[in-house]
Design a protein that fits this description.
Layout lengths: L8 E7 L1 H5 L6 H12 L2 E8 L3 H14 L2 E5 L10 H9 L3 E3 L1 H11 L7 H4 L3 E3 L3 E3 L8 E4 L2 E4 L3 H11 L10 E7 L7 H10 L4 E9 L2 E10 L2 H17 L5 E2 L3
Parallel strand pairs: 1-2, 1-3, 3-8
Antiparallel strand pairs: 4-5, 6-7, 7-8, 9-11, 9-12, 10-11
């Protein structure tokens, strides 16, 4: 049973030379912090390290020891410099294996895309004993071992992995959700979604577009641990959709 007075904490380890060099601007810190806030878990610290095995091992062991959870982003792709899996395995003192379910997922994903080659198979490598985090975006799953969660560096793929973990972390408050649907192109209301989420601290809005009956639409899943904030956010989103001449369908379409 969760102790009501305890504050559960998480750390984020951002991995990649491209972040430290300034070639790539990191967007995952804000994304992970917002997601954790919705789970009722506090992001307590963030560290950025280079693609260096010793640096990653040291950071993983330090951060996982003093936090309830550690999330990492970056370095789990198909190229030779994607070393996060190897470094985390070293931190845990285990070997690296091909996860059979990950291999099967990648085989299905790449079947119409030229097949599973040696580079792509690297994305099925996990520390021994690890479990998978689903990834609807690009096939290659994230990885969980102990209290450490390895995710992609690409923000849109990270978002999908976080979505798959929503409501699953021990110590988080129960996550409440409501769905609002509309026959609207996601791009048409991007500003409305962003402003509505910003105006309701503690809420996150997931957007799930679809093509059906010859037209496009989207379902918006609003999540929060606070029922009143959730209701206010949903009301604001529905009002905003109607102001744009769009229907807002409770429960989705």
């Amino acid at each position: 049973m969760t102790e009501p007075s305890r504050i559960w904490k998480a750390a984020l380890l951002v991995i990649g030379d491209e972040i430290l060099s300034g070639r790539t601007q990191d967007k995952n810190v804000a994304q992970v912090a917002t997601w954790l806030n919705v789970q009722g878990i506090r992001l307590s610290e963030v560290r950025v390290v280079a693609d260096d095995t010793a640096a990653i091992v040291e950071a993983v062991n330090a951060l996982r020891a003093r936090n309830d959870y550690l999330f990492t982003t970056g370095g789990i792709g198909p190229t030779h410099d994607d070393i996060t899996v190897d470094a985390v395995a070293e931190a845990f003192g285990v070997g690296v294996v091909i996860h059979p379910e990950a291999r099967a997922i990648l085989e299905r994903y790449y079947e119409p895309r030229g097949g599973l080659n040696e580079a792509r198979l690297r994305m099925a490598r996990v520390p021994e004993g690890a479990e998978l985090i689903p990834n609807r975006m690009s096939g290659a799953p994230g990885i969980q071992i102990g209290n450490v969660y390895l995710m992609a560096g690409v923000p849109s793929i990270t978002a999908g992995m976080l979505d798959a973990l929503t409501g699953t972390l021990e110590g988080g408050l129960p996550v409440l959700s409501q769905t609002i649907g509309s026959w609207v192109q996601e791009s048409e209301i991007a500003d409305l979604l962003r402003k509505t989420e910003q105006d309701h601290d503690g809420c996150a809005i997931g957007s799930y577009p679809f093509f059906r009956e010859g037209r496009v639409g989207a379902n918006f899943v609003v999540r929060s641990t606070d029922a009143a904030v959730l209701e206010a956010c949903c009301d604001a989103l529905s009002t905003g959709l109607r102001a744009l001449g769009r229907e807002a369908v409770p429960g989705g379409v």
